[in-house]
C-alpha cells in the first residue's frame, strides 16, 4: 500500500500587543490547514520564552510594542536565532524606512495588518496566509551586517562590464550584505528588487548611506557610470539598458 506524504503545517507564533489583533490573526491563519498557530505573545519578552519552548517555523511580528519594539527584537532574533519572520504591522504599510530596515535585518516580508471591511479583510487574509506559508519554506542563516571593514579598490574596472542583479524575497538583506562588502569603484550595477514603488526611493537612499559606492534610484534616460548602482523604481516598472555599456537606462 502506498502512503501519500503530506507536508507538515507551518507552525506559527503570533507576536502583537493587541489581544483583538492576536485573535484575528489566529483566526485568519488557523483557517488554512497548512498553517498551525502554536501560540501568541503580547510582547517580545513573552515571545522570547515561547520561541524557546515551542520552536515555531515562522514568527509574525508587530512593530509598535511595549518594552521592546519589533525592529529591535527582529535584530536580536537574527543575531542569536535566525528564523523566518513576517513583519505584520500598520506601520509597514506607510513607513517605507521601517519596512526597509526590517528587511535589511532579515525579515522575509513586511505586510500590513488586515484592513476593515469584508472584501479588504478577505484579500488581506489570503495575502497573510500566503506570506506565512512562503516564509515557512525559506531558509534562514546569519548574515553579517558589519560594514566597518576596509574596502579595497582592487583591479581597474573593466570598461565593458555591466553587472545586473534581480532579487525577490530575501533579496534586500542579501543586497545590503553584498554591496557593503564591495569596493567603491565597481562596474555599473543595475538592480531590480521586487518591492512596491513607494519603497524603492528609500531603499536606494538607505543602501547609499551604508555602502561605499554611489546608489541611486534609476531614471529614464540616465547614462550608466562605474561606481554607481541603479535601483529600478518599483515592482510595477521594467528597467532596460539600451546601447550596452555606453548606453542609457530605459
* Level-2 CATH architecture of the largest domain: 3-Layer(aba) Sandwich
Distance between the termini: 59 Å
Domain count: 2
Strand content: 15-25%
Which word captures the global form?
elongated
The CATH homologous superfamily of the largest domain is called Response regulator
Question: What's the helix count?
Answer: 8
Give the structural class: alpha/beta
Give the C-alpha Rg.
20 Å
Helix percentage range: 25-40%
Identify the CATH class of the largest domain: Alpha Beta
Uncertain runs? 1-5, 147-152
CATH structural fold name of the largest domain: Rossmann fold
Instruction: Please give the oligomerization state of what you see.
Output: single chain
- Report mean pLDDT, rounded to a whole number: 84
- Give the H and E element order: EHEHEHEHHEHEHEHEEEE
Numbering strands along the chain, what is their spatial order in the largest sheet?
Answer: 2-1-3-4-5
Number of strands: 11
Largest sheet, in brief, is: 5 strands, parallel
How would you summarize this macromolecular structure in one to three sentences?
37% of the residues lie in helices and 18% in strands.
Please describe what this structure looks like.
The strands form 3 sheets. The protein has a 5-stranded parallel sheet, with helices on both faces. The protein has 8 helices and 11 strands. The chain has 2 domains: 10-136, Response regulator (Rossmann fold), CATH 3.40.50; 163-249, Rossmann fold, CATH 3.40.50. The radius of gyration is 20 Å and the shape is elongated. Strand 1 (10-15), helix 1 (19-30) and strand 2 form a beta-alpha-beta unit. Helix 3 (70-80) packs parallel to helix 5, helix 5 packs across helix 7 and helix 5 crosses helix 8. By secondary structure, it is an alpha/beta fold.
Amino acid at each position: 500500500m502506498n502512503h501519500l506524504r503530506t507536508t507538515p503545517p507551518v507552525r506559527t507564533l503570533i507576536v502583537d500587543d493587541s489581544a483583538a489583533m492576536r485573535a484575528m490573526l489566529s483566526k485568519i491563519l488557523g483557517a488554512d490547514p497548512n498553517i498551525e498557530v502554536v501560540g501568541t505573545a503580547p510582547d517580545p519578552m513573552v515571545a522570547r520564552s515561547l520561541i524557546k519552548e515551542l520552536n515555531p517555523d515562522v514568527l509574525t511580528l508587530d512593530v509598535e510594542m511595549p518594552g521592546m519594539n519589533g525592529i529591535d527584537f527582529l535584530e536580536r532574533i537574527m543575531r542569536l536565532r535566525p528564523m523566518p519572520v513576517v513583519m505584520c504591522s500598520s506601520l509597514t504599510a506607510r513607513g517605507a524606512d521601517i519596512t526597509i530596515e526590517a528587511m535589511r535585518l532579515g525579515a522575509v516580508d513586511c505586510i500590513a495588518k488586515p484592513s476593515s471591511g469584508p472584501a479588504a479583510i478577505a484579500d488581506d487574509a489570503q495575502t497573510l496566509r500566503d506570506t506565512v506559508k512562503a516564509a515557512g519554506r525559506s531558509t534562514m542563516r546569519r548574515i553579517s551586517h558589519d560594514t566597518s571593514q576596509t574596502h579595497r579598490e582592487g583591479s581597474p574596472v573593466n570598461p565593458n562590464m555591466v553587472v545586473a542583479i534581480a532579487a525577490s524575497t530575501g533579496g534586500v538583506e542579501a543586497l545590503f550584505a553584498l554591496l557593503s562588502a564591495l569596493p567603491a569603484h565597481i562596474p555599473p550595477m543595475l538592480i531590480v528588487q521586487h518591492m512596491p514603488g513607494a519603497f524603492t526611493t528609500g531603499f536606494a537612499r538607505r543602501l547609499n548611506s551604508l555602502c561605499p559606492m554611489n546608489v541611486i534610484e534609476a531614471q529614464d534616460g540616465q547614462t550608466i557610470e562605474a561606481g554607481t548602482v541603479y535601483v529600478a523604481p518599483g515592482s510595477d516598472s521594467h528597467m532596460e539598458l539600451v546601447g550596452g555599456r555606453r548606453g542609457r537606462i530605459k
